[in-house]
Amino acid sequence: MEKSFIKEFETIVGEQYTLSDRESLAVYGYDSTPELESVPGVVLLPGSPEEVARIMRLCHGAGVNVTPRGSGTNLSGGSLSAGGVVVQTSRMNRIIEVDEENLTATVETGVITSALHREVEARGLFYPPDPGSMNISTMGGNVAENSGGLRGLKYGVTADYVMGLDTILADGDLLRTGGKVVKDVAGYSLNPLLVSSEGTLGLFTSITVKLIPKPQGKITMLAHFPVLQDAALAVSAIIAAKVIPATLEFLDKVTIKCVEDYAHVGLPLDVDAVLLIEVDGHPVVIAEEAAAVADICKKHRCSFFQIAKDADEALKLAAARRTALSALARLKPTTILEDATVPRSCIAAMLKVIQDSAKKYNVTIGTFGHAGDGNLHPTCLTDERDKDEIKRAHAAFEEIFDAAISMGGTITGEHGVGLAKKKYLPKLVGETGIRVMRGIKNAFDPKGILNPGKIF
Amino acid sequence: MDYVKLINCMRCGMCLPVCPTYRETFLETASPRGRVALVRKLQEGELDQSEQLLEYLSLCLDCQACASACPCGVNAGELVAEFTCERKAETGLGFMEELILRKLVPHPDRLESSMVPMRLYQRTGLQKLVRTLGILKMFPKPLERMEGLLPNLPARPLRQEIQEVTPAVGTERGTAGFFLGCVMSLIFSDASRATIKLLSSLGYKVITPRNQVCCGAPNMLGGDLAGLKDAARANIDIFRRYDVDFIVTDCGGCGAELKKYGHHIEGDSASAFSAKVRDISQILVLHADELRAQLKPLDLKVTYHDPCHIAHCQGIRKEPRDLLKLVPDLQYKELESADACCGSAGTYNITKPEMSDQILKCKLDAVRASGAEILVTSNPGCLLQLKKGLADQLPGVRIMHLTELLSRSMDA
Fold it and tell me: How far is B52 from chain A (nearest CA, A)?
């Protein structure tokens, strides 16, 4: 990028927050997506919405691309830029307000998700979305990707909590959508459009989210299943029995072994699958629900059923699931994590497809995930230096995505399309889908400078 | 360097929120993930060994909080240290490094003599005069900082005073070899005296070999792997002459280094040595009931700072807290982010004063919020850094080594 142009950025955000040395650019060339890298032209760390607007005006005038980035934990390559401007939002990290009367919180875009959790939970309130990276992911990133997490089944995902957004558009203008009102039918609903826009429609500067009362109690359970299909059937049976657990997570044999090696929480090594189940709410209700869950698991031939004795044990069991991805990653240098999602009634069929594909292409795939909402994480353990195996891994995943689509599911439940899933999107949404999306993109960003090349 | 260690990093970012320098700067280059990537790209030839790259790597405190957080077992701090060692092996040590790491540190007598002028400086009242007149402003900044960090020195280093054998009180249950840390002996001799007292009152005969040498941690810090190996061989040889059940230290930095001798040096004697090394807290918790019986009430609000070399490098977190909770009437307050570095990190507080001060400030804010009147820790680097920080910014809070507090409770 030209020196004179970089100087202009320096006058906006300051020299300290304008990074253009070779070393900095090199390490902003990745996020958490395996295999993908591209070096940006400059990295900026603005400190205020005004600075973001000025950056956008400058880039809009010059026709320069802009890609927003939080902490760089994106899993679909969405925060990568080839030669353009990367705007890192981390410095805008104030929790502006927790409104206990309206049950909302308003935060700046760079606030870390778990920091919001701590702040609202100290007041007896609850912000449910809890993506795996919540200790470092930013709220802006969560909104842009519509992040899910372990509690999606009962509480939904980020989109279900976003009430208001301040968004800086491609030309630097501020778009204010929604607010603190529960009902609002004035014009198009733009919030849902901006959520999961992956940085292609605008840069969020402030986010207002809905809060709910913190559940009074929680019961954490663990069930071991010698046969994988039984675990999958148990998931469907629990939901069919009208129990909606806050968490209904699945770990397969490969994953169990890795988690146990890493976290030593006493997971059994001789079973095919483990379900981590949490029910939360009123103590009387959850006791009944836990009993129902226990009954269903036993009917589905679980070999062991465990209820966490105390909060410490519950935390340990939940931590085991939370470390699943990372624990898998210890086995091999490269980890390709996908998030194919199917209607939950198809979980058993989907698990079979994953196993068959892994076998067919001779690759190791560990599967864990949010079985309760049909969102699985088949995770291929490989080595980026083994080009042949990488090729086979992608072939296996292609089959898995095709199967997900044929079951009425989707290619990505929570990681976004970004660069990684781009080629599969037309298969899912068809020509009409792509045409409508392009139309929306053009309405927001006719010059196409916002995170170009992502999604479609 | 083993390339696989570098590509094992899957860039998940779990290390970012625990890295003190990332938390201060939000810069990828100042994060463990970024440092691993820098070293990797250097190896792959995508980057050169530029001044800028070395500068970025030098911001690492080597606190290893990232290693505790990393799910894939990558230790970014250690990788940076390893890189520095490899680089120094090629370029050789600088004049001052050679002087300090080879001529001074490995020789306890020389090290002790070098402190004599400082002791005189403090005792003759010269220090007071110098500070009053602000003369230090005329010297380079690092010197001024060093002078400021130094607390009042004991009359003599512990190594010169302590008897080689301290008998067990009552029935002897075993023999503990005591490893004297240089800084503990030179500056915090009261704490080490307390450590020996605790061991002997719990039935250990304590052997403190006089000729032991520095553990080698400063060599490692300076990228002098050969110097570390010399130190290791000397200490292994010295302790082999005594029949000890454990080798105990009350210095977190020494403990972490001694436990790695087996990793750096081939052969059974090094791994046998390392296998015997214990932090003092690990020994004391073994005898919690007997210790409790000897402790008297201390009505104090106390909090604990985890030294990186104890929590992250040795994985010891529970033991010190359990020990503090043995003291009757003591009100234990957990510190927010207790295992975050205090910014001391070897000589970091002298070489990177600004970053060190920012990191220290976070720690002091947490101490203030805890409401504690006494801050306990168990590593001399942290003691130096926090003692100065408290004196400047939180004069109401006192700092003590874990064994000092326990010994006080014993004598109360």
Answer: 7
pLDDT for residue B239: 96
Contact between B11 and A27 using a beta-carbon 8 Å cutoff = no
By the 10 Å C-beta count (0-12 exposed, 13-18 middle, 19+ buried), A243 is classed as buried
Residue found under tokens 């207790």: B338
Interface touch B52/A32, C-beta < 8 Å = no
Task: Say yes or no: B8 contacts chain A, CB-CB below 8 A.
Answer: yes
User: A24, B29 in Cβ contact below 8 A?
Assistant: yes
Q: Please check whether residue B124 touches A, CB under 8 A.
A: no
Angle between helices B76-91 and B51-58 (to 10 degrees): 130
| CATH number belonging to the domain at B286-411, selected among 3.40.50.1860, 3.30.160.60, 3.40.50.2000, 3.40.190.80 | 3.40.50.1860
What is the CATH number that goes with domain B3-91? Answer: 1.10.1060.10
Amino acid at B298: L
What fold is seen in the domain A95-213? Answer: 3.30.465
Q: What confidence tier does B140 reach under pLDDT thresholds 50, 70, 90?
A: low
pLDDT for B120 beyond 90: no
pLDDT bin (cut points 50, 70, 90) of residue B214 is very high
Q: The CATH number of A3-88 is which of 3.30.420.40, 3.30.43.10, 2.60.120.280, 3.40.462.10?
A: 3.30.43.10
The predicted-structure confidence for A338-384, as pLDDT tens digits, reads as follows: 999 999 888 889 989 999 999 999 999 999 888 888 999 999 999 99
Percent of chain A with pLDDT over 90: 80
Query: Given CB atoms, is B38 within the 8 Å cutoff of chain A?
Result: yes
Residue B342 has pLDDT above 90, yes or no: yes
Q: For domain B158-284, give the CATH number.
A: 3.40.50.1860
CATH class for domain A332-447? alpha beta
Q: CB-based contacts of A32: which residues, under 8 Å, 6+ apart?
A: A72, A73, A74, A75, A133, B10, B11, B12, B13
